[in-house]
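Ticket #4471: structure export looks truncated?
Reporter: QA, pipeline team
Priority: medium

Steps to reproduce: submit the single chain below to the structure queue and open the exported record.
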Amino acid sequence: MTSRYQRLEKIAQGGRGIIWKAQDTESGQFVVLKEAVSSAAEADLNREIEILRCLHHPQIVQFFDAETQAGKTTLIMEWISGETLEERVFRQALTLEELSLFAKQSLSALSALHEKHWLHHDLQPQNFIGTSEHWSLIDFGSARPQEETAASALIGHVHCIAPERFSQATMDARSDLYSLGCVFYFALTGEYPFDGETSAQIITAHLHLEAPPLQDRCPCLPTALCQLIHQMIARNPAERPASTAETFARLSLCSQLALPVDTTSTSARLRPLTEHGEVAKW
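Actual output as written to the record:
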């Protein structure tokens, strides 16, 4: 890393990389630095750089630069003020109005990625960051070309992984939509539609159990919205919306999305993720 970027704070570290908050000494602006910690993670980071170079979207973290020194690559991205969706929901679930905005912005970001023939593969509450007015999608290290199958390494948040990823099934946009449906469910309730005490139990829930009815947990939600989210998390991909465009159109028909929702009982159900909830991160 050149002296242009001064590291200020380590934000996160995991099996795949280290994330730093830094400052550009030339412009004075804050940035994010991402560095790989292994050769396999280096390949993921180079793929992420490739993707972000060609994506210019207001709901996708902005690519600034990439540097290589002594064989190690550093990705430089914009610093996004705010909190993750997970942090926000731990405080209070989204209202219908907030969910409407988040859903439209997240679908817009995902559509831009799918138009480039990539799947994100790690849509989860931690990978959306911002405020109730503006959300950005981050962390494209798990992204793969749409034609790849689930034979690749299983990386992602186990609560949000589409069931076809546990097999050799071919994946497409509907796999990401399943994950996003799990995120929508969590954003409204503070709970995941498929849960368990261990990763194995959560995987079993994805493969064999039905999600608790969303409207039972939040009776104020419009029926059309509940139906859409349950179709997004349908076990059979053929029962899900076929694309982000179809999902967005269906969402727009939910005319009651601006109504408030009673979330007073939600905070008592919120709980931080335990270790079994994360298959791999960074």
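Status: closed, not a bug. The export was complete when the record was re-opened. Leaving a note from the reviewer for reference: The chain has two domains: 5-78, 83-277.
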